[in-house]
C-alpha cells in the first residue's frame, strides 16, 4: 500500500530540482538545439572500430584512417548532439537519477509499476496500436478509403465532411487517438490531393484532432490514458464505457454542426461540391488493381 503523501516534502530540494529539470526538458522539446561535445580521439576511434567489428556500422574506409592519422595533432573530436524531443527527456531522467533526486524505489515503480499502474503494459499497448495504424497506411487501405470517400461525397461537400467525420469517430473509438492521427493525416493528404477546389486544409485537420481526442474517450482500449485510469482506480471496462458513452456521443453530435457550419462557413474550406483532378492520358493507361 502506498504511503500517504506528505506536503512537507514539497519544500525539499529534490522536489524543486525535479520540477526545474522537468520544465527545462519541456523547453528543449519546444526549442531544440545542438550541444557541442568534445570526445578524445582515441576513445572515438576505439568506439567506431568496435562498432564496425561487431558489424553495427559499416567498416571504416581508408579515408577515415587517413583522416584519423592526419588529425593526430587534435586530441579531441567534435560531435554535435541534438537536444530535442528524442533526447531531452532521457537525459533529464539520467540527471535526476545521478543526483539522487529520483531514487531506486521511484525507478522500480516507474518501470515495473505500482498501485495497479503498469507502465510496461501501457507502452506495449501504445506501440502495438501505432504499429497497426502504420501498417494499415502502408497497405494502401488509407488511399483507397480516401479515394472512395471523395468519389461518394463529390456532389456535396457537407456530405463528404459528414462521411469523413463519421469515419474518424469510428476509427478513433476502436483503434485510439494516436493510430487515428497517424492514419488520418495520410487520409486527409490523399483526399485533398485528388481534389482541386479544397484550398485550405485546416478545417479538416482541426476535425481530425478534435474527433480523435473525443472518440478515444469512449472505450478503455481507445487510449493508453484510459488504460492507466481504469487500472489505477480498478474500473471495469463495461462500467467505464457505460458512463462515458453519453457524454462522448453527445459531444460528437454537437461538435459536427459547429465545425461544418460555423467554423467552416467559407466555401474555400468545405466547397459545395468537390472537383476531382483529372488523370493524365499516361496515368489512365496504367493497370489498376
Structure, explained:
By secondary structure, this protein is mostly helical. The chain has 2 domains: 7-112, no CATH class; 119-283, no CATH class. It is 63% helix and 6% strand. The chain contains 13 helices and 2 strands. It has helices at residues 13-30, 41-53, 62-70, 88-98, 104-112, 119-138, 141-152, 157-175, 177-193, 202-215, 224-232, 237-263, 281-284; strands at 33-40, 76-83. A two-stranded antiparallel sheet has the order 1-2. The longest helix is centred in the last third of the chain and has 27 residues, at 237-263. It is globular and about 70 Å long. It starts with 12 loop residues before the first helix and ends in a 5-residue tail after the last helix.
Task: Please give a handful of descriptors for the protein shown.
single chain, 289 residues, mainly alpha, 2 domains, two-stranded antiparallel ribbon, 13 helices, 2 strands, 63% helix
Amino acid at each position: 500500500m502506498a504511503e500517504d503523501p506528505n506536503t512537507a516534502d514539497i519544500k525539499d530540494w529534490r522536489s524543486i530540482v525535479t520540477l526545474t529539470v522537468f520544465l527545462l526538458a519541456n523547453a528543449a522539446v519546444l526549442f531544440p538545439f545542438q550541444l557541442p561535445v568534445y570526445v578524445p580521439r582515441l576513445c572515438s576511434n576505439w568506439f567506431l572500430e568496435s562498432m564496425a567489428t561487431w558489424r553495427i556500422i559499416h567498416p571504416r574506409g581508408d579515408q577515415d584512417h587517413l583522416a584519423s592519422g592526419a588529425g593526430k595533432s587534435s586530441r579531441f573530436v567534435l560531435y554535435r548532439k541534438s537536444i530535442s524531443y528524442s533526447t531531452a527527456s532521457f537525459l533529464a531522467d539520467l540527471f535526476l537519477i545521478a543526483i539522487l533526486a529520483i531514487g531506486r524505489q521511484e525507478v522500480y515503480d516507474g518501470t515495473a509499476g505500482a498501485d495497479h499502474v503498469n507502465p510496461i503494459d501501457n507502452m506495449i499497448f501504445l506501440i502495438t496500436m501505432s504499429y497497426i495504424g502504420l501498417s494499415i497506411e502502408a497497405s494502401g487501405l488509407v488511399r483507397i478509403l480516401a479515394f472512395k470517400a471523395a468519389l461518394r461525397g463529390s456532389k456535396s461537400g457537407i456530405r463528404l465532411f459528414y462521411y469523413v467525420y463519421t469515419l474518424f469517430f469510428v476509427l478513433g473509438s476502436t483503434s485510439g487517438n494516436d493510430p487515428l492521427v497517424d492514419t488520418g493525416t495520410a487520409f486527409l493528404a490523399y483526399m485533398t490531393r485528388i481534389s482541386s477546389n479544397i484550398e485550405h486544409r485546416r478545417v479538416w485537420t482541426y476535425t481530425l484532432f478534435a474527433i480523435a481526442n473525443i472518440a478515444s474517450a469512449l472505450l478503455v482500449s481507445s487510449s493508453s490514458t484510459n488504460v492507466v485510469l481504469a487500472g489505477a482506480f480498478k474500473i471495469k471496462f463495461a462500467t467505464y464505457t457505460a458512463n462515458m458513452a453519453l457524454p462522448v456521443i453527445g459531444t460528437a453530435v454537437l461538435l459536427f454542426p459547429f465545425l461544418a457550419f460555423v467554423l467552416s462557413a467559407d466555401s474555400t474550406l468545405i466547397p459545395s461540391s468537390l472537383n476531382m483532378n483529372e488523370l493524365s492520358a499516361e496515368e489512365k493507361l496504367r493497370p489498376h488493381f
